[in-house]
Amino acid sequence: MSSVATVYYANGILAVMIAIEYRDQYRKLNDKVKNVQKKTTATLSTITAKRNARVVDYEKIFADNLIECVIHHQKLTETFNDLKTWFNINFSLNLTTSTLTICLIMFCVFEEKNLALMITYVETVGHFSSTLFVQCFIGEIFYEFNNSVKESLYDIEWHRQPLCIQKLVHIFQLQLDTPLQLRGFYIYNASYYIFSQFAKTSYSIFNLMRKINSQ
CA 20 to 30 Å from 14, out of 36, 63, 120, 166? Predict the structure, then answer.
């Protein structure tokens, strides 16, 4: 039982580490987006000190800074697409095994008279439940990543920029419209809602098992 718990905890820790890295990368991307205008102005000031800056210089510098953000976001999205496959397998397996295992273990807890075994059963239920909750929590975090960048992008006063910049901002916004969704069985989003449904389903199956056993 301890080896099973170790595997589940190892998967959970790996998922948390990946989520932390993504959070840090999206914070850096957020800072880049927020500072696009400031960075452009600073670069333009440097150019002005050397020669006469033109409107074309501003547009090009702004576009280059924004394209840097777009490329950063595209790389994160590409990496996320690889992550989705690994997460889908783990989350799908966890959803299935956790629901069935927790029901059986809870049933054993109520039938078991040995206190030591009861404590072991309860610990195992905690292992499975906490791992699934962590995965659902991570799913909620990933879902909000693009929204945070989109808000930062909207705040850079894009409506005051030249038309070519506005088009570029609009394209970036369209990319950010799609949230990063981690799923199980390619259907169920990893979220608090799914965790609540998992708990509800487990409890229903547990009650059904007790009812059948009592007849």
Answer: 120
